[in-house]
Amino acid sequence: MTLDVTDLQKTYPTGDEALKGVDLSIGGSETTAMIGPSGAGKSTFIRCINRLTEPTEGSIELDGTDLTALDDDGLREARRDIGMIFQEYNLVERLTVMENVLTGRLGYVSGWQAFRRSFPPDDVERAYEILERVGLGDMENKRVDELSGGQRQRVGIARAVIQQPTILLVDEPTSSLDPETSNTVMRLLTEIAAEREIPVLINIHEVDLATEYADRIVGLHDGEVVFDGPPDDLRDGA
Ligand code: ADP
Ligand code: ADP
Question: Residue 163: CB within 6 Å of ligand 1?
């Protein structure tokens, strides 16, 4: 799987130029951390890739398919391949861990629709395996509003992974977590990239976590890439 982003620009209706022509290719089972101060454009970048935000200019190719050219049906199809993990988890509080994970099988729809559906036994079986993998093996019947932040984020990861995505996009996964839990979540994400042989792009403002866990660092500043290389080069240059 490769993602090729070319000349991505986003100007919001407010006039904010969040992205000023970003080029980025990721692939393999590499973990890429996108770092940069608040307002650099990291979140806009990830949101443009699956078109939660409409880019102003540029192309976004997932294995050769230009996502910017897709109609609604095409986009729905393409989004099944893109696993998204959010800072604030975006889980359905009143549903259980298992129900939240299973919503991942439906792509981007509300959890309530999932609640009313019954799922094939294979999906449930796979959900158990993934919950085990993320360390929530005995928590499937807990309601999400009973969980800690770290546990919620692991539910978010499980929900993305059950989609069997070909790429994972992760927006500030550790912002709401304490340092120890942040390390656990970062380690889990990099391990999943390796095990599933998919690229993972993680927006993160904590440089230490980025350099410790990522294979590659992309530095974004004012909507432009100002660094792209291995963590060691960043440490040497800093
Ligand atoms: P980061 O994720 O690096 O903090 P963002 O992508 O959230 O950066 O924001 C980049 C720039 O775009 C900022 O100047 C921000 O104020 C602006 N921005 C983000 N979202 C919107 C929006 N919905 N409307 C207008 N401006 C926005
Ligand atoms: P904002 O632009 O102020 O962040 P939104 O309502 O667009 O507000 O998004 C709120 C959060 O929900 C964001 O983290 C966004 O990435 C996420 N989000 C938006 N649309 C969807 C969707 N269809 N499915 C899942 N998460 C979404």
Answer: no
